[in-house]
Structure formats: C-alpha cells, structure tokens
Design a protein that fits this description.
Helices cover 12% and strands 47% of the residues. The chain has one helix and 20 strands.
C-alpha cells in the first residue's frame, strides 16, 4: 500500500488539497496544507477539500477519515479507516466518487465537537484512495493521499506555538557527506511541523554554500524533542564555517548561528551555539534607546549654552 500526505494534486494518480482556511489561520502557511483549527466544546465547523483524478483513466475514489498519531518525529496515518475520538466527530459528505480522467470534485468534511469534550489536541487524516487489482496475482494495490488534521479543543484562543533549538552537532556520514544535527524541543501547546535551511559562509578561501534544506517530515508532538537533520553534499569542505540555521513551523521561526568544522567520518562534534537570546536583543535595544536619549539631552544642553552666550554677547 502506498500512502502519502499531499498538499496539492499530484502530477499523476490522485490528489487532494484544502480549498478554504479559517480567518484566524489565514496568515499561517501550515493552514494552507493541513486542518490546524481550534474548536470550543459544543461547536461545529466544516472544511471543503478538492479531490482530483490525474491518472490516465477513470477512477472510483473512496473518501474517508482515519486516526493518526505522532510517533518518533513523524505524523503517521493509521491503516485503513481506523477510528479514534477525533474521527467520531468527523463526517464526509461524499464517500465514493466516480471520476473521469482530469476531473475534480469538492468534498465537505464536517467537525462536530461534543459539549463534554476535554481540552487537548487530537490528530487524524482525510484520505482519498484508489484500489487496483492485479488479475494475475490477485494482489490489490492501494494508493491514497491525505490531509493532516491537528484539531485543538478548548475554550478561548489556541495555545501558543513555540520551540527551542537546544543543541547542535556536526559529523560526516559513512558516505563522507557532512551533516548538521539540531535537537529541537516543542515548548508550546500545539504540535509542530519543522522545516528550515542551513547557510554556510566565511569558509575556506571565503567560500559560501547553501542554503541546504532540513530533512522532510519532522513533526514534534507537544513536549517532545527530536533531531532535525541537514545533510550536505560530499564536496563541502570541512571548514571552519560560519553556520546559520533557521527553523520554522508556520509563523514561528528561530535562527541560531555557530562556528562549525565538520570532523572525520565516525566522529560527532558538539557545536557551541552563538545566537543572541531574545532578552539580549531587548537589552541591546534598551541600551540603544538610552544612549539616544542621553545624546539628545546633551545636544539640547549644548544648544541652551550656545544661546545663552549669544544673548550675553548682544548685551555687551
């Protein structure tokens, strides 16, 4: 069976994508890909998804919801139409679509949260699936694409999203490719999908390199920590380099810098993070504002002394 979470229609086969986003999440790029809404107990909402048939023939497409979990830094959809608490709150308007080649269809997914639902975040998926049977072997091939659902339940606004880059290390893999690993902790109240890039500058002979993207699919459950990896091409020199790592999830972004040198194969080397903390930035801003205020007061005092001397000269 082949399963994938698709943000848009795939070039071949079938595709699925969200066609509407809640106003409160309109600026969050994750909301264009996944259902990440906040709902109060006893409330209802719906989302419309578009299913497309990009295969070379007509297809019967099954649409359904299923349970999901976050395990080992990955968002994992359950096999088939397995249920959990979230799926008991979901319903699909069209469960079977007969689609011609190139056709598109809209499907409404409704969410009805019971009034006694406890606070917390639930996970699920919205799937579009096609099946084909090999007449010779009798083996059934299942292909499906899905949209993740991160549904936060509770009164008031959604919990804040936040993460920390705890540490960085560098190494060379057995194939001699350099790698930078960052341990990232979810310190907020929502699950996160981490992505980002690494830029290198100030290298040997003034070289720069990158940006190099992080490994795909790193999902951080609430309170969990995972390793986010950036693997570089083999021909990247050992260094030293000025490294700048930027990670983000939706609207939350963190950047750290460090001086790194990639070690020989088999050695892992911890790196000292050199980024300025938010409090240091605030302190620098306050110091700058104070210096500006002192300079302004000194300038005004100087102007007053100059005017006084001029008035005295006119009297004589």
């Amino acid at each position: 069976m082949d399963s994938a979470f698709s943000a848009a229609s795939s070039p071949t086969g079938i595709g699925i994508r969200l066609t509407e986003v809640s106003a409160s999440e309109a600026n969050d790029p994750r909301a264009l890909l996944y259902v990440i809404d906040r709902m109060a107990p006893g409330s209802s909402m719906s989302r419309v998804v578009e299913v497309s048939n990009n295969s070379l023939s007509s297809q019967v497409v099954a649409c359904y919801d299923s349970a999901a979990t976050i395990v080992g830094g990955a968002f994992v959809g359950a096999e088939g139409d397995s249920s959990n608490e979230l799926t008991s709150w979901m319903s699909i308007s069209k469960q079977n679509l007969i689609m011609k080649r190139g056709a598109k269809a809209k499907v409404r997914v409704s969410f009805n949260v019971p009034s006694d639902a406890s606070p917390g975040e639930r996970y699920g998926a919205i799937w579009a699936e096609i099946r084909s049977k090999n007449t010779g072997s009798g083996i059934v091939s299942i292909n499906r694409v899905g949209i993740r659902v991160y549904l936060s339940v509770g009164k008031g606004g959604a919990p804040a999203s936040s993460f920390d880059i705890k540490s960085i290390s560098v190494k060379r893999n057995i194939d001699a490719s350099p790698e930078l690993d960052a341990i990232v902790s979810n310190t907020g109240g929502r699950a996160l999908d981490i992505s980002g890039e690494l830029k290198l500058s100030g290298g040997p002979a003034g070289l720069s390199a990158g940006p190099f993207t992080t490994n795909l699919g790193t999902t951080l459950a609430i309170g969990e920590s995972e390793v986010v990896r950036v693997r570089l091409p083999k021909d990247v020199p050992d260094g030293p380099w000025d490294a700048e790592l930027t990670l983000r999830s939706g609207l939350v972004s963190k950047t750290v810098s460090a001086r790194v040198t990639f070690p020989p194969v088999g050695e892992v080397r911890p790196v000292v993070i050199q980024s300025i903390s938010p409090w240091a930035v605030v302190a620098l801003a306050l110091a700058g504002a104070l210096a500006l205020s002192v300079s302004t007061l000194a300038y005004r005092a100087s102007r007053r002394r100059l005017h006084a001397r001029r008035r005295g000269a006119k009297k004589h």
